[in-house]
Amino acid sequence: MKKEHCIFCQRDAIKIVFENDLAVAFWDIHPVNKGHLLVIPKDHKEDFFDLSDDELLAIKELIFKGKELTDKNFKADGYNIGTNVGKYGGQTVRHCHFHLIPRYIGDDPKPAGGIRKILVKGQELI
């Protein structure tokens, strides 16, 4: 996807919560839980593997600021932090983005295993 067609590159389409020189954080418009933040590089990079070390550090800084904010305002009991890469990794917006998803007691009756729960059990793994 080209930068001019990327929703995350259209800064007027997102409400920025935090930013630094290389990254921005904003609320997910389709949150999994209250307090769900997205953190993206300012430059259009398709996925995690396109990021520079400096961009990774900038994103990490905002993930920590996001955790502090959600701890204070939403009293999260845990977190999921992740990024999807490619169509078969679940990526739907072709601009690298990290999810900071607060988790709460009772939001999943059996939270153990996280993303592993969606995969077919019994598949042979390498």
TrEMBL record:
Top-level taxon: Bacteria
Active-site residues, as the UniProt record annotates them: 97 (tele-amp-histidine intermediate)
Residue ranges occupied by any HIT domain in the UniProt entry: 4-110
Gene3D superfamilies, per the entry: HIT-like
Biological processes annotated in GO: nucleotide metabolic process
Motif (Histidine triad motif): 95-99
Molecular function via GO: catalytic activity
PANTHER family the record matches: ADENOSINE 5'-MONOPHOSPHORAMIDASE HNT1, HIT FAMILY PROTEIN 1
Protein name: HIT domain-containing protein
